[in-house]
Amino acid sequence: MKYIYLLIFILPLFFSCGTLNQKKQRADKAVSELKDPLTYEQRRKFDYYFLEAVRMKQKGEYDAAFKLYEHCLDIYPQSAAVLYEISQFYMFLGQEAKGEEALKQASRSDEGNFWYKQTLASYYQSKQNWLKAISVYEDMAHIFPSRLEPLLSLADLYGRTKSYDNLVATLDRIEELDGKSEQLSMEKFRAYLQLDNMEKAFSEIQSLVDEYPYDMRYRTVLGDVYLSNDRNDEALKVYQDILKEEPDYAPAMVSLASYYQKTGQDSLYAVQLDSILVNENVDTKLKLDFMRQQILRSEQTDRDSTKVIRLFETILTKKQPNADVPMLYAQYLITKKMEKESVPVLNKVLELDPENKPARLQLLSYAINKNDLDEVIRVATPAIVYNPEAMEFYYYLGLAHYQKDETDKALDVFNKGVQQINDKSDKNIASDFYSILGDLYHTKEMKAEAYAAYDSSLVYNPNNINTLNNYAYYLSVERTNLDKAEEMSFITVKAEPENATYLDTYAWILFEKGRYTEARIYIEQAMKNGGDSSQVIVEHCGDIYFKLGDKDKALEYWKKADAMGSTPEDGSTPRSEEELKRLKRKIELEKYVE
Questions:
Q1: Is 70 helix (H, G, I), strand (E, B) or coil?
Q2: Can you give the C-alpha Rg of the chain in angstroms?
Q3: CA 510, CA 263: separation in Å to the nearest integer?
Q4: Digit-coded pLDDT (tens) for 492-518
Q5: DSSP annotation string for 344-410
Q6: Residue 27 CB neighbour total at 10 angstroms
Q7: What's the maximum distance between 2 C-alpha atoms anywhere in the chain?
Q8: What pLDDT is attached to residue 228?
Q9: Is 496 strand, coil or helix?
Q10: What is the C-alpha separation between 381 and 396, in angstroms, rounded?
C-alpha cells in the first residue's frame, strides 16, 4: 500500500516538471502512432471482421459478435477499440478480472482516448477502489489538462479518502480552469478546517470577498463563517459594515439576528426579527425560510405557539406581495387545531390568491362540518370560476342550494359540473353527479331528463346504489318498465340487505307487479330495520296488507302513517299534498286508493 500512495503523490510532481526528453518521447510516440502497424492484407481482414462484429452486436447476436472481436484480436492484439468492446462483454458475463484487464489494455493502447480511461475509472469507483480510481483520474487530468471532469472526480475522491492536502491542490487546479466560486472556496475552507489550518481557512473566504468586493453575498458568507467558528466580534464587524453600505440587505439582516441570538442579546434579537419581517425589501422566500426555522425551533424547544403567532402577525401588518406567508401561517394554525383563528387567515389567502384550492377546500370543510349552507355557498361559488376543474366545489355548492330549496340554482350548478367530466374524471364521482342531477330533474318533474341522467350515472358506475334505488322507485311509481325496476332494485337489496329504504323500494315494485306475498316479506324486513319511523314505508305496509286481504291491519298502518310527520328526517323531498290527501282517503274509505 505504501508504494501506491507514493505513486499518487509523486505522479503530479513528475508530470508537472516534464523534461525535454519526455516531451521528445511523446512526440516520437505520436509520430509512430500515425503509422499503421498492420500490413495492407491484415488491415483489410481486420476492418472486415470488426465491422461484421459491430453488425452482429447491433442485431443482438452477441455470441457471434464476441467471436468476431476475438478474431480481430488475433490479427491485431493491441487494438484499443476491440479491447474496449471485449471488456464490455467480459463485464456483462461477470468475468470482471478479464474485463478490467482488457479495459486497462485499451487505455494503454490509446492513451488519448478520454472515454476508455473514464470507463476504467468509473469501474474502480463502482468497486470502491478509490486508490486505483484516483490513479486513473490523475493520469486523465495530466493528459487532458483543459477538462474539468477528471478534476471534479478527484476532488470527490480525495474528500472521500480524507486526503485533504490533495483535495486543496485539486480545488486549486479547478479554480485555475473554471475561476473562483463560492462553492470552491467553501470546499477549500472546509478542507483547511480539517487540516486545522484556521488562518488559511479564513483567508480563503477573504480571498472570495476580495475577488468580488461589491458582492455582499460573499461578505455575508465571511461573517457567517466567523460566527459559526466563534469569532463573534469579527462577524459583527462584517455585518455592520455591510448594513452600513446597504441597510436593507436581507441576508446580512438575518445573519445579524443570528449573532444577537447566539450572544444572548434577546431584546436586540427581537427588534432585529421585527425589522426583518416588516421590511418589504426582504424577499418572501427568505421570510418563509426564516419562519420555517422559527417553527422548527419552537417545536424542538418550548413549543410556545404564541411566539410564532406574534411573528406571523407582525409580517401581516404589512401588505403582502403574494399568499405564501399567510398560507404558511394558516397551515401552522391548522396543525395547532386553531380552527377559529385560521379562518380569517385563509380568507386572506384567497383575497391574495383566489385560485388557491387548498385554502378554499379548508374553508369549505369548516362550513360543511358546521352545516353552514350560506358559508358553503360563499366559499364554493367563486371556486367554479377559479378552479373550474375541481368537481368537489360543484358537488357541495349544488347540494347547499338543494338543501335551501333553491332547486333551479342547484340544477344549474350540477349541469355545469357534469360539463367538466372527461376521460380522466373519477368514474364514481361522475356517476354521483349524474345521479344527483337525475334527482333534481325528477323534483322538477322533468322525467325524461331525469331518466337520461340516471342512465348516464349507471354508464359510469353500473353499481351506483343510490341511482339504482331512485331510478327503480320512480319507475315503479309510474308503473312503467317494472322488470327493469325490479332488476335494479334487487341489486340494492343484495348489496345492503338491512337498508329499509331499499327494502321498501323492492317491496313496492313487487306490489305493483301483483306479487303481494313476496312484497310482504320485504316490507316487514324494512319495518324491522327502521322503516317503522318512515311515513311512506308504514303506508306501503298498509297497502300490501290490504291487497293480502287483511283490512284491519291495513287500516292500523294507514292511521299510524297519518299520525306521523310528513317531512322525512333523512332530508329527502317532503311528501306532496296529493299524497297526504290520498292517505286520508284510504282511512276514510277503509280501502286502498290508487
A1: helix
A2: 42
A3: 86
A4: 999 999 999 999 999 999 999 999 999
A5: HHHHHHHHH-TT-HHHHHHHHHHHHHTT-HHHHHHHHHHHHHHSTT-HHHHHHHHHHHHHTT-HHHH
A6: 10
A7: 129
A8: 87
A9: coil
A10: 10
Cα separation, 181 vs 168, in Å, equals 14
| Angle separating helix axes 357-369 and 324-335, nearest 10 degrees | 40
pLDDT for the residue 193 = 85
Asked if 190 contacts 200 with a C-beta cutoff of 8 angstroms, the reply is no
What is the pLDDT averaged over residues 174-198?
88
Q: 355 is written with which cell numbers? A: 385560485
> What pLDDT was estimated at residue 566?
60
pTM metric for this prediction: 0.62
* pLDDT tens, residue by residue, 385-401: 999 999 999 999 999 99
Residue 244 scores a pLDDT above 70: yes
What span, in angstroms and rounded, lies between the C-alpha atoms of 359 and 214? Answer: 42
Rounded average pLDDT over 121-138: 92
- H or E element that contains 320: none
Angle between helices 391-403 and 373-386 (to 10 degrees): 150
Whether residue 469 contacts residue 489, with contact meaning beta carbons closer than 8 Å, is answered with yes
Question: Given its phi and psi angles, is residue 181 left (phi above 0), alpha (psi -120 to 50 degrees) or beta?
Answer: beta
Does the CA dihedral 553-559-563-568 come out positive or negative? Answer: positive
Exposure string of 268-305, with b = 16+ CB inside 10 Å and e = fewer, is ebbebbbbbbebeebeeeebeebbeebbeebeeeeeeb
pLDDT at 101: 93
* Helices marked H in 60-129: 62-75, 80-92, 96-109, 114-126
Q: What is the pLDDT of residue 164?
A: 92
Among 106, 112, 191, 116, residue whose Cα is nearest residue 145 = 112
Q: Which residue has the cell 472546509?
A: 190
Coil, strand or helix at 5? helix
Q: Which domains does the chain have, with CATH numbers?
A: 493-594 (1.25.40.10)
What average pLDDT score do residues 374-391 get? 94
Please tell me the distance from the alpha carbon of residue 433 to that of residue 415, in angstroms, as a whole number. Answer: 9
Q: What is the 3-state secondary structure (H, E, C) of 37-48?
A: CCCHHHHHHHHH
Q: How far apart are the first and last CA of the chain?
A: 105
* Cβ–Cβ under 8 Å, residues 471 and 488: yes
Q: Look up residue 584 and give its three cell numbers.
A: 286520508
